[in-house]
Amino acid sequence: MKTFALAGNPNCGKTTLFNNLTGSTAHVGNWPGVTVDKKEGKYKKCKEPISIIDLPGIYSLSPYTPEEVISRNYILDEKPDCIINIVDATNLERNLYLTTQLLEIDVPVVVALNMMDEIIKNGDHIDAKTLQESLGVPVVAISALKEDNIDELMTIAYNASLNKRKGFTLLEKGKLSHLIQDVCIAFRGKGVENPLFHAVKLVENDELESKSHPDLLPMVEDFKHTFDDDTFGDDFEAIIADSRYKYISAHYASSLTKNQDKAYKTNLTKSDKIDKVLTNRWLGIPIFLVILFIIFHITFSSNFLFLGGLFKNVAPSFEGSMFEGLLWTSDGINSPGVILFNLLDQLTGGLSDLVASWFVNIPENAAWVEGFIVDGVLGGLFAVLSFVPQILCLFLFFSILEDSGYMARVAFILDRVFRRFGLSGRAFMPMIMGFGCSVPAMINTRTLADENERTATIRVIPFFSCGAKLPILTAIAGGIVQFFNVGNADVITYSMYLLGMITAICAVLAMRNTTMRGDIPPFIMELPAYHVPQFKALMIHLWDKLKHFIKKAFTIILASTIVIWFISHFTWEYKFLADEEINNSILANIGQLLQPLFTPLGFGSQLKSFGWVFVVAAITGLIAKENVIATFGALAACIIDSAIDIEQEGGDVEAAVAMIANTGITIPALISFIAFNMTTIPCFAAVATAKAELPNKKRFWFTIAFWLIVSYLVSSAIYVIGTWWWTLFIYVIIIVAFIVGVHYINKFLDAKKAKVV
Ligand code: GDP
Ligand code: MG
Predict the structure, then answer these.
(1) What pLDDT, on the 0 to 100 scale, is given for residue 445?
(2) What residues are neighbours of ligand 2 (ion), with CB under 5 Å?
(3) Proximal ligand: closest to the CA of 8
(4) Sorting pLDDT into bands at 50, 70 and 90, what band is 412?
(5) Ligand 2 centroid distance, CA of 16 (Å)
(6) Which of 18, 250, 294, 413 is deepest in the core (most CB within 10 A)?
(7) Which CATH class for the 2-169 domain?
(8) Cα torsion at 186, 187, 189, 195 (round to 10°)?
(9) pTM of the predicted model as reported, rounded to 2 decimal places
(10) Is 121 in the pocket of ligand 1 (CB under 6 A)?
(11) DSSP per residue over 201-257, as a string?
(12) CA 213–ligand 2 middle distance (angstroms)
C-alpha cells in the first residue's frame, strides 16, 4: 500500500485535511504542535487505498525541536511515496521556507495550497500555475475546511507518486550552489541516499548531519574556504536560510495579487488589535482569570449574573410555579449549566423511584436485591451521570478557547512571566490540556526538549483538574453552599481550579530550581490568527468526550460501584449486613484502619464512625476519579436511612451531598478533601501514561511519592490554616525560608560549577 505524508507548518490545516481524508475524528485544535503523535489513517477514494500520515507541524527540517527531528527522520527513513506539503496560503512566504527544504529530498512532493477560502474571502488572488512553475512541483489550491478540491489533490498526488523524483535545490546559482553540488557529488560517490539533502545540511553545519558524516567534514571545510559572504561571514546556516528567503520573495510575489481594498487590512489588524488587549503585559493574566471565571459562572452559578438581589423582589409572584427549583431558587436565577444539571438530576431521580417501585412486593428475605440495585448500582451511577451536562458545558467553553486560538496566547502570556523562574510557555500547553484529561496532556509533553522540564511537567499535569474530578468539586461545593450556607458554587469551584493551577506552578517552579534544573529552550511560537471556532469541530469534540464518559460510566465505574456495594455489605466472614450495620463491613474495616492517616487532613478519625467513608472514597478514586462521588452515592442511602434518617428528596446527588454534610465534617476539611483528590495520585490511566512517558523507573517511583507528598502537604495546610487561621504565619515563614535557602544553595552550586569550567 502506498503511503503519503502530510507535512507543513503548525496550524496550516494538516489535521483538518487529515480528518477529511481519513474520515477519522482526530482532534482539530489551534495549538501549534498539538500533533506530536504520529497519526495514521486510510484514504479510500483513489485507485488503491492509501495510508495517510499526519506529521507534526514544523517550520524547517533542522534538528532544533523534537517535532522537526520526528518529521525529518520519518521522511528520510520511512520514505513515503509522496509528501503532501500543506501550505497556508494566507502566510505564503513563511510557509514556503519549509517547501524549499522538502524539495531537496528525493521524493515526490505535491504542494497543497490550503485556506484558499480565506484568500477568496479577503479578495486576494493566488495563481497556483505561476507558483507551480517557480517551484517545479505540482501545486493544487484547496480548502481543507470547506473540503474544496481535496479529491483532485489526491489524484495529482497519486499520479506524482507513480514516478520517482530527484531532489533539486532552489538555492541561488553561483558559488553557494557550486559548493553544494560538490558535496553532493561526494555523497553520491559514497552511495548515500538523498545526497542533495544531506549535502545542504552538511554545508549548513547541521548537528545531526555532522555527527553522521564526520569523514566528509574536512572536505566541506576546504570547499568553504573558497566561499566568503560579506553579510554572514562563515555562518553557513544563515547564508543558506537567507538564500532560501531570497528565492521565495523573488518568486512567490508574482503569483500573489493582494486586494488593495481596506477590508483586508482591517481584517488583518483585527487579530492584532485583539492581541494588543488580550496579551497585554499587565492585562493578559487578569483577563485570562476573568474569562475563566465567566465560564465557571455560566456552568455552576445558582445566582446567575448576580441578579439574586433584584430577583428577590419579583420572586414571590412566581412562587409555587412548577419551574421553581429548576430555573431559580431563593438565591437567584440558575445558570444554564445548573438548569441542565437539575433537569438530568430530576430525570435520574425519577428513574430511581420507578425502579424502586418494582420492588414494592418482593419478599422480606430478598430485600437486599432492592438495596443493591436501587441504592448501590443506580445510586452510584446516577450520582456520576448527573454531572454530564456540566462537564460538557465546561468542555464546550474550553474547546472554544482552544479552537479560537486563545489558549495559544495563554501559553505565550504565561511564558513571559514564568521564563525567569525556569519554566517555558511550551510546558504550559500540555498543562492546560490537562483540564481535559491528563493522559493526552502527558503524551503532549513530548514537545519539551529538556528532559527535566518534561519530568517536572508530567508530575504537575494532574493538578490541572480534569473532567473526571469535576463531580467531586461540584458535589462538595454544592454541599458547602447548601448545608453551611456560605459562598457560591461557582466561586468555590473556580477557586479550587485556581488552587490546582497555583499548586502546579509552585511545585514545578520548586522542582525546576532544585532537583529538576535545566536549560529553558527558547519559546518561539507563531500566534495563529483568531478563528471563529467551527461548530462541527466543537460538536465532534463534545461527542468524543460524552462517548468516553458514558463508556467509562458503564464499565469501570459500574464495576467499581458493584464491588463497593458488596464489600460494604459483607463482613470478612461472608456475613450479609443490613444497612445499619455497615460500619462492620469489609470496606469500613479497611477505611477504619487507614483513617488515622487522614486525621491531619481533617477527614480522618475526628469524624468518628464516618471517617472511613471519606477514606474509602479517596481510595476508589485511584481507579477513576468519578468513583469518589459514585462511592458516596452508593453509600448514601444506607448511611442516611440508618444513622441520620433524613427523608431522601431529589436525586442521587442530593442524597450523596446530604450524607457528606451529616458526617459532621467542617468546611476546611471538605476543601482539604477536594484538594487531596485533586492533587494526589491520579487515576490508573494517567499513572500508566506517566510510567510510559517518564525516562526511567526511578523517576516514576519518585513521581508517585511526589503526588502523595504534595497532596498531603497541600490538604493538611488547607485544613490547619482553615481551622486555626494564625498558623498561616508559620507556613509563610517556612515557605520564605525554603525559597531563600534554595536561592543561596543554587548560587553556591553555580559558582562551584563555574570554577570547574
Ligand atoms: P494543524 O496544526 O496543521 O494540524 O492545523 P489544524 O488542522 O488544526 O487547523 C488549524 C486551524 O485552521 C483550525 O482552526 C482550522 O479550522 C483552520 N483551517 C484549516 N484548514 C482551513 C481552511 O482551508 N480554511 C480555513 N478558513 N480555515 C482552515
Ligand atoms: Mg494538527
Answers:
(1) 84
(2) 14-15, 35
(3) 1
(4) confident
(5) 7
(6) 18
(7) alpha beta
(8) -130
(9) 0.69
(10) no
(11) HHHTT-HHHHHH-GGGHHHHHHHHHT--BTTTBT-HHHHHHHHHHHHHHHHGGGGEE
(12) 33
